[in-house]
Amino acid sequence: MPTARGRHFLQIPGPTNVPDRILRAIDRATIDHRGPEFGAMAREIFAEIGQIFGTSGAVVIYPSSGTGAWEAALVNTCEPGDRVLMAETGWFATLWCEVARRLGLNPELLPGDWRHGVDPAEIEAHLAADRSHSIRAVCVVHNETSTGVASRVAEVRKAIDRAGHPALLMVDTISSLASIDYRHDEWGVDVTVAGSQKGLMLPPGLGFNAVGEKALRRSETSRFPRSYWDWRAMIAANAGGYFPYTPATNLLYGLREAIRMLLEEGMEEVFARHDRLAEATRRAVRAWGLEIVCAEPREYSNSLTAVMLPEGHDADAFRKVTLERFNTSLGNGLGKLQGRAFRIGHLGDFNEPMLAGTLASVEMGLAAAGVPHRKGGVDAALDYLAGNTRSPG
Ligand SMILES: *Cc1c(COP(=O)(O)O)cnc(C)c1O
After folding, report:
1. Which of 1, 12, 72, 351 is the most buried (most CB within 10 A)?
2. Centre of ligand 1 from the C-alpha of residue 43, in Å
3. Residue 393 has what pLDDT?
């Protein structure tokens, strides 16, 4: 591969571009994680982080990937053999189900077509049929990163309540937190699972559980063996600004900066910015004459757009062209979409000119790879953005 010049366009749906402010915050000496300077920093993080999740409750931070935070949510609230209800929205929902299975839980994965979100009515019907209340939890992925479909979490909560069922609601927001409107408390979520490397604009390496009162009570009586993931030891130590084992100190410097940046911008504007960049992307895809994987407009993801290639064209060959010729990384198709779809990440530290560059790479790549399409996708996006962009600052 020839030496690439200029900025690399990392437009996969996570890890996302880490802004310079965060890189500089991380680039500092690692300090004593039991000393006073660390405690003051961690207390600031714990005081502010709830605003990102929309909660006044506890937020537990692990040195882990998002997968660890999935496991933590399950081992703190469930026991081996417990039934959990999940919905096959795509690759990530299927993987979370696999984690539950390996832990010895008894998950039921409601089949899906990978083009729609969770169906609240189906959840309600399943819970209503569970008269003995043996289902311990409903686990849903808010933003299915493999398909670009965002499920309607508030409606899933209402469905659980209509069924009068005590199951916990656990939500994976790994690719929606700080990108798509999300409200842990207001929507009655019991456990929110998140990761650092997507909307939070950090490198990979932190996993999060926002924990509601009901889930916390459940964890007190759960007999699932757990140690590293145990909320109780974490929450007890966090109260003073400390951790029961060595935390990812430098990533926490970055997290403090990320929280400051998000609150300076304002969560409403963060969501609005993702909304307009996502809408511009969808207009480009339609202008090219390509198909968006998400079949339901009210479930469009504002974090990423997954795009089908026409029959007979290999999405990975197309992505190879955008990478090698235009220094742009696009997301691959996952699971059954491998080779058939590609994904444009438009989340995190991202703005209009970055999107314009990304879409230009896609349009050039389609032409260079010989994928049939119409011209004008970039123009359609720019026209939309010109009418919708707020002036910076
Ligand atoms: C990225 C992602 C994960 C996996 O997180 P890791 O940090 O790779 O373990 C899980 N769920 C969703 C929705 C994701 O986007």
Report:
1. 72
2. 27
3. 40
